Model the fold of this input.
Amino acid sequence: LGRLLAKHLTEALGQNVVTENKPGAGSNIAFELVARAAPDGLTLLVGSDPLTINPALYPRVGFDPVRDFSPVIEAVRAPQVLVVHPSAPARDVAGFIAWARAADGKLTLASQGNGSIGHLAGALFAQDAGLGFTHVPYRGGGPAVIDLVAGHIQALFVTLPAAIEHIRAGRLRALAVTSAGRSAALPEVPSVAESGFPEFEVITWQGILAPAQTPPAAIRRLAGALDRILAKPEVAEQLTAQGFEVTGQGPAQFAHLIQAEARRWPALVRRTGAQPD
Done:
């Protein structure tokens, strides 16, 4: 997402926009770097749900998701998807629950990492359904998807774009998505909510943020440019094909989402007992 937006933002602003990966500590290194950057509109963050999950997950983080950032625009959202190998006996959520109960806690349910949104989605589902699983954390959704395709694990909660091509090719079977309704990218796959758990909803979001105290004029200029970029057919179609929903929520709406997520996740992290690697 960062590379795609940077390419178009370079053209829109008439100046170079360079993407830089800063991995480590569950994205906390990148979050803290931007939180401490000069608020001049020249350093931006491609932020996502760990921004609001990690403060409840780690004993200390060097940022506050609400206080230390100026939201610019929410770009996309995507659900998690519950996927199994095509040889699995489960063809829907009810079948998956029956399979898990018969396995008596031994069914392997993977995620993209301890404390990831996929881990939390699986833990919440397990609690709501009264099930036990053997959690298998990976370092990213890609390796988990590859191992599920190979049959090394039995089930996985992962962000939809990481699995959608394997689902379309028949290498994985999708049982449900975690959005409140169905995903436009996979309209034939029901949601967990419509499969017997009406209150269940877990969404991944990604957007652009600047350091707190960035001048409002700079935020407005960036938000306007990014909104126009996300509305371009070639950009929207590329993101939609990957399983994202393009939202384009502006600074005020994006700030509201971050505040709501920052309130929501601490209780859910405590409820699941999730811990980082």
Observations:
- The first helix runs from residue 2 to 13.
- The two ends are 26 Å apart (CA to CA).
- The first strand starts at residue 45 and ends at 48.
